[in-house]
Amino acid sequence: MNHPDWYLALTVGLLLGAALLAGLVARMLHLPRVTAYLLVGLALGPHTPLLEFFEWAAEQIGYSISLAGIHISEEHLTHLEPVGNFAIALVLFNMGCHFPLSSFRRIVKRLLPMSLGEVATTMVLVTGGLCLLGMWQTDSWLSWQVAVLFGALAIATAPATTVLVLKENRSEGPLTEFTTGLVGLNNLASIVLFELLFVLVHATRGADISIGAEYLELTRNLAVAVLLGLVAGLAVSFFCGILLSSRWLVLLIAVICPLMAACELLHVPYLLTFLTMGITVASTSDLAEDISEALDRLTGLLCVVFFVIHGAAMDLNKLWAAGAVGVAYITLRCAGKYFGVFFTANAHRDGPQVKRWLGSALLSQAGAAIALSAIAVERDQVLGKQLQDIILGTIVFFEIVGPILVRLAVLRAGEVPVASAILHTTNSPIEQLRSMAYRIMQSLGINPLHGSSADQIDVSRVTRRNVKPLLASAHFDQVLDHIEHSHDNTYPVVNDTGELIGIIRYPDVRDVLFEPSLNALVTAEDLAVTAHKLLRQEDTLSEAWQLLKDGHDDCVPVVTSKTQPQYIGVVRRRDLLRLLSHNARNGES
User: Which of 191, 442, 529, 587 is deepest in the core (most CB within 10 A)?
Assistant: First the structure.
């Protein structure tokens, strides 16, 4: 069925709105936003009965409604597929921009043993386990040829999902570095091994093919992919060096779009092309980080669309239909990824956290495995369909669980800053409305201090006495819990007798790495700094305003006296503005 253009536009807008709300909920629940976007797509996709259920429920209570406008149809998925491919290309390019050859050489000696161990372990476990399952089920279609190809597919890790979860959490450290490197190596190994093995498997099934010619064709395709990425990367490095930064985004899109078309026409792996392009830019330009940042906002928007439509394409029915083979594939792949890294990583050289958590960060699977299984269908309808059915079923599990484990891994490894580890907002919805009203008054030329009696009113009128301070002995996790449940950016710290000993400012701790081991070592007293700005309970609103308007703190502690500062409460900037604005309106009238 063909729909008008406005129908597709309405659907995209509503889906983005739903994804935005789901992202906020995911942040409150400490889940990756990627997971929320996938679940929104899954809930509103063509393979879910959710919308039909809502329409049926509405009819039962006497309403007739149609929710088709927020349903992602198969037709919409087809129209939006190029957007998803473009998003993956940007992610791969961005990933390459953080890996100049000099950086890769620095970690390659530590990365290769883990990569070989993980690839070999995953391949052996998946292939061997599925072969045994096929032998046990006498009437099973699961032959050794299919098991071998599943072993090659199991190596691939979803680059877009993994890298975007790392970027969302702003993680930084050896685990993040190794994860990013292994994602690239995994997909390259999966593509090469699958192509090599598919030729052999196809030959054993009686196909009339030349193994030598097939391998020569594979070598040519890989070489062309690298060459395309190299040329495109050199072009971007050169022109970004002579163009204004405001034109970089136009240049990048002008290069990336024809490059995607060339990969499609020449049938070369675009993953390798865009990864090579990013590595080339990182190795030949001093502006690689700036170029990457120029793409970030566009990448963020396109990736929301990508994960929503990717979630819509997933079918829970395929997960159930995968049956014992799907369960075995999921279990064996998880074991291969985890133990492959665990037994090859060196705890002393690479770090115990890398050894323990790196395998868990490599479980996401989607794009490369789906693309390879689709290629298999084109070449051998029967064999390819067997592969594709299981892959399309199991990615539902890997794409939902994988991002959660990536976040958990970098959190436990202590590579995530506090600002990404907790949910902290500086404004509640009500306070945001009040702030907007105040800005409107300012725009109309209304001075909050005009007509008020700020010099005659003491601060006790706006002192928040119910704001609990942090005890100096509070552990690090208690400090973070206090920050997460507060809308302030400044937190008073008191000793056991209630005397103010300092304050903790959120901007000072938000970039500190969230290290679980800090809980037993760091207290609120260690994080506190001297509070140079204090208010006594008899000070006036005018004095409070002078302290707040010239600083960055959103609240000031109120004490009994400045010589023996017993904590009473805080005066918040937003409370003071609201009172002064009220007085201003009364004065004007």
Answer: 191
For the chain, how many structural domains are there in total?
A: 2
Query: Are both 356 and 409 inside the same structural domain?
Result: yes
Domain of residue 189 covers 74-206+290-416
Q: Convert 14-52 to b/e letters by CB count within 10 Å (16 or more is b).
A: ebbebbeebbeebbeeebbbbbbbbbbbbebbeebeebe
**Strands 470-471 and 490-494, sheet pairing:** parallel
- Which candidate, 361, 339, 336, places its Cα nearest to that of 126? 336
Residue 490: φ, ψ to 5°:
-130, 130
Distance of CA 223 to the CA centre of its chain: 32
The answer to whether residue 69 is domain-embedded is no
Q: Is the pLDDT of residue 520 over 80?
A: no
d(CA 257, CA 279): 18
**How far is it, in rounded angstroms, from Cα 181 to Cα 184?**
5
**pLDDT per position as a tens digit, 68-111:** 555 666 776 777 777 777 888 888 888 888 777 777 777 777 88
The pTM of this model reads: 0.78
Q: pLDDT tens across 529-571, in order?
A: 888 888 887 888 777 877 777 667 778 888 887 677 788 888 8
Average pLDDT of the chain to the nearest whole number: 80
Q: Report H helices in 343-423.
A: 352-357, 367-379, 381-412, 418-421
Whether residue 513 sits in one domain with residue 402: no
